[in-house]
Structure formats: structure tokens, C-alpha cells
Amino acid sequence: MRGRKIRQFALETAGILFTIVAFWVPFYFIIVNASKDVQESSLLNLSLPSSFHIWDNIKTVIAARDYMLIRAFFNSTVLTAVSIAVLVILCAMAGYVLQRRTDRATPIFNFLILAGLIIPPAIVPTIWVMDSLGIFKTLIGLILVEVALGFPFAVLLYKSFLAAIPRELDEAAVIDGCGGIRLFFGIILPLLQPVTATVIVLSSVTIFNDFTNPLYFLPGSDNVTVQLTLYNFQSQYVTQYNLLFANILLITIPPLVLFLIFNKRIVAGMTAGAVKG
């Protein structure tokens, strides 16, 4: 019994140390270098600055290139909010249908969902399709890309969670006169709140922090998102590390706060979906 407690304590200590090394040390590195001037930040070390310039650096970052960061925050917020709304509705409906219906087409749809998780996205063909549809370099086109990339994982979460909701509930609602739309939005969707919270938080962090998709599918300074503003302070020959890290700090805080607030909901939704599936 005592040996088991020692092993448990050792594992917990190792987990805490890993968390410190993997997360808090890099975050400390960002804060420290965001507080330095140009010369000190170019050393890229963990030492404290001789004098703190964090507020001056933040003001410079916000005002850079005609307040591009504010425009980027607006674009990223719209992109994230609309993508999440579409993801939740579509994936909940798809997961409900796939879990409730069992016919010859069900294995095919399940295979396609799994293929969406396995097969990597192709940039050039996607651009060609978007350009043919007239949605390349538009926010709507990027929203569709983000929804397509997040669709398989969210559908699997909803499908697993819906396995715990008995079919008798659907049958009782139908007997009481509920149609398909009313059944789903009035009865089923409210029961999916735990997994919906998980999908919202995980997808929000992923979409808000996305760098490659806006770079490929939404080029242009007017369409810039928060991650692309990092280019404002680095070039081939000169990099202003103090401003770069101040920019990183500003765009890291919103998803970090969101994750810390809803951390328990994320774990609850993931566990519920896994166990009940």
C-alpha cells in the first residue's frame, strides 16, 4: 500500500514537472522577452530585463501598420464565431443521423468520416475548387475550409455521446407529435450540452490560432487574422523580437483564458463521449 502511494506521488510529481517545462517555461519566455527592449530581446534568453518596456511594446504592436492587429482580432473573431456555429449545428445533426440510422449506407458514411481524420488536406486542389466557386480570398471560403477540417472529429464526438441517449426518447417525442426539426432542436440538442461545450472550446482554440489556412486561402492585408500579424515584426534580415513576443502574448491570452475557464467542461465532454460511446 505504501509503495503504491509512493508511485502515485512520483507520477503526479512527474506530471507537474512536465507541465511546467512544456507550458509555463515557454509562456515565461514570451512574457520576459516581450518586456525587453530591442537589444536585450535579441539575446533570446530567460533573464529578466534591466528595465520593463512591456506596455510600450504592446502600444507599438497595436498601432503598427494602421492598427492592423485590431482588424485582425475582428476578422479572427468573426471567423471563429461563424465557424463554430456552423460546426455545432451540422455536426450535431450528422452525429444524430449516423447514430440513429443503420442501413447499407451507414458504413460508407462512417468510412468517409474516418477518412476525413486520416487524409491530409490538399492545398492546391482546394484553392482550385474555391477559385472555381468564386470564394477564394473570401472569409466565407475560409469558414467553409475550417468547418470541413473540424467536421470529422466533432461528428465522432457527437455520435459517441448520442449513444447514451435512448431511442425511446425519440419514439415518445414522435408519438406526442414532434416533427424531425422540433425533435432535434427542442429535445436532442439541449441534451448535448457537455459535448457541445467541448466542441466549442477545442474548435475555437484551433480556429483562432490557425496560421496555415488563412495564409493560403485568405491572403491580403485587409483579410489578415491574428496569427498573420506576426509577419509585421520579422523579415529576412531584421526581426524585432520584443515586438514579436509582445504580439504573440496578445494573441495568446484570449484562447488561454477560454481554455482555463472551460477546462473542466472540456474534460467532462471528452470523457462522457468516450465512456458512453
Automatic annotation (TrEMBL):
ABC transmembrane type-1 domain: residues covered: 73-262
Membrane topology type: Multi-pass membrane protein
Keyword ATP-binding annotated: no
Matching entries from InterPro entries are given as: MetI-like, MetI-like_sf
Q: One matching Pfam family, short form?
A: BPD_transp_1
Q: Which Gene3D superfamilies match?
A: MetI-like
**Signal peptide segment:** none
Q: Where does this polypeptide localize?
A: Cell membrane
Q: Which UniProt keywords apply?
A: Cell membrane, Membrane, Transmembrane, Transmembrane helix, Transport
Residues crossing the lipid bilayer are: 9-31, 73-96, 108-129, 135-158, 183-208, 241-262
Chief location bin: membrane
Describe the family membership recorded for this protein in Swiss-Prot or TrEMBL.
Answer: Belongs to the binding-protein-dependent transport system permease family.
Protein name, as recorded: Carbohydrate ABC transporter permease
User: What organism does this protein naturally occur in?
Assistant: Paenibacillus medicaginis
